[in-house]
Amino acid sequence: MGKIYLxxxxxxxxxxxxxxxxxxxxxxxxxxxxxxxxxxxxxREALEVARTEVARFAGCQQEEVFxxxxxxxxxxxxxxxxxxxxxxxxxxxLVSAVEHASVLHTSQSLAREGADLAVVAVDLQGRVDxxxxxxxxxxxxxxxxxxxxxxxxxxxQPVQDxxxxxxxxxxxxxxxxxxxxxLFPGLWRELEADLMTLSPHLFHGPxxxxxxxxxxxxRLLPQIDGGIQEGGLRAGTQSVxxxxxxxxxxxxxxxxxxxxxxxxxxxxxxxRDRLEETLSDWVLTGHREARIPGHLSxxxxxxxxxxxxxxxxxxxxxxxxxxxxxxxxxKPSHVLQALGLDPVLARGAxxxxxxxxxxxxxxxEVGVALTDIVARLRRLSPLAPGAAEV
Length: 390
What we know:
This protein is of the alpha/beta class. The chain is 40% helix and 13% strand. It is globular.
């Protein structure tokens, strides 16, 4: 039996069509885009074509796209770069309690440098409390960083309201769209954001590259010195092959996104319906409706999520549990803690995130397998009602 991959909030399979576009720049077209000769000029042209495709995808200008090696690096550049350019003229940096570690840890680093850090609470469904946010923003916010969609619980944040409130208070706004960009192209055009992060490996592009959108007129302090690449914001020879893959992933996602998102909503709803019919004693995490299309996250009572994931893997089903950048830390999920979930219940957390490569038949197979696995584990659990004594 082939593997059923449902960990697409962590990374996605590279589209073979995208790989084909990348191969020439790993083979004969290997030149550096900084070189003056013909090979270098062709590399530079390919890099800028890719930048144009990413800009069309995001809804911004080509000169507003700056390539980085990862979304984590882009988030660091956004926060540290903006703070470094303005420094202590800012009284407050605002982030939500459910941000990715690359934002939370970076904001904590800024606090050690003198920033007044405010971490805004979320409700039980993981949405930013807009009243608390507005109060914190009006108390002198200079920089706001909020993700569009949470990869762990799937919740979509009210980013339009967050941007509006922030701009009314004169704050710069950074949106981390890493988890959602492939399904919501043109997000930049719809928001009053100043900075935005996206990465193609969440929509079937390559790993090892990401981009930070920087609105015209916004100054950032570079975080990597040593060259003038990427407009002087990010030194280092660019990977043309990865950029070309990013551009092709952006083009394909831009053309397919409306139908892709609608189909994933149907599949995600199908999986939820199957589990509601066959599986008892579980709690949906995240917002019930305002969530990443095709994302389902839940906490299973009386079992360990790690054990469930292991048995799913044995059955050929690959699912997730928490952020890929915090798994293995030996600590409870900060996202589930922010939602106020009982720590014991949170130990049963699993999540499923579908991609365009998944099918309805796979969804049904996952529903049957998960129900069977949870039943087997509960028969062994001393916590489960009516569990057999071992």
